[in-house]
Amino acid sequence: MAQKKYNRTDSNNVVMEMKTGIKQFKQVVVAKNDEQKVLLKTISRNIITFVKGSPGTGKCINPENSYISTTNGVQLFSDLVPEHSVKDAYHEKEYAVINRNGLKENASHIYDSGIQDTKIITTKLGYSIEGTLNHRILCMTPEGVKWKKLADIRPTDVACISRKQEFEDIYETEEDIDRAYFIGLMLGDGCYVLKNTFSLSSIDHEIIEFFCKFCKDNFDYAPKQSKSRYCDHVVCSKQARSKLLEWGLLNIKGECKVIPSSLLNSGKQSVAALLRGLFDTDGCVEKKSAITFLNKSVKMCKQMQNLLLRLGIVSSFRMKTKTYNGQKIQYGHISIIASSLEEFRNTIGFNIKHKKDRLDYLVDSTKRNTNIDVIPKIYGSVMLSQYVNAFDLNIRDFKHYTTGYRAVSHDKLNSLYEK
Description:
Distance between the termini: 56 Å
Largest sheet: 4 strands, antiparallel
Radius of gyration: 26 Å
Number of strands: 20
Oligomer: single chain
């Protein structure tokens, strides 16, 4: 029979000792939040303590608009939830997720807490998360990185978001990459709401040539130019339309378009080709040092923002109102921030020559403001001070940042880490 003894060492941890007939074990149990501090104090003061808590303790996120980084790509949380899940119950679901350090970690179950009160947190750049009030996210504090409940998040808080995720080493053929680019074109300027017909609207010869060749090679069908709208190139083929259904392009209107889940889980080259197709159609290289994207499907824009971030490209998202035929229509608007322009060119780029030339000019000749994408002074100084102490570096090389005199940009922080 085992005997347990708890000795409180301070307000945050307890030394747990377990004695059996053969061995004696000792372990320090550390509280990670206020609730655990109360629990450990109670344990240390009583011989027997009963602890009751509902499964999952209410820390959940909305599965309909939350994406999970897994080793199989970015997946919509609702796609991982069993079809007939039961409230207040665990459901077995084994898959590998990516933790806060970018490493693989195995998950075994999904818990359904049913309908709960939630809170939506949106950052300055438009990244958002919706979860229960008890759900925690990583935030920067003057003492370093800490977990905070959504209920406790304030407008001045700084949320931590992973800026890049390594892709699985997936073998991708030229056919896979071309299909991803084709789907990107269709998501941008394609129409596939009819049962046996789809079309693409474009006046760029690079897009038209690719579209016609792709349809001929894959569907054995040459698109016909519309007589009423010269920019429309139409495919009337039941076989071709059924193939698009297999690829995830359902019979839906433009404002309901979404990126197929198969492409969210594909390799790096296919994801880049998909985004290239979208930016070739609905993207624009503006004169004011910006690459922008505009589309009626808000959900697809949010998917794009997550995929861009997975490639290490930071963007901002906002809603934009435009007037069309006298009606005001809401659009999703994405803008690539200046510090990510070169990464965009190297990873995604354009197939349209005039857009490609403007992007090259933008990156090579425009002086960009690096003081926008920065870590707030008080938090950046804490991070660098911890880094300098951990690696025993010369504090003089970092004094402008560790003292809080200057805010360190993400690019500067990466370059200092590489040194």
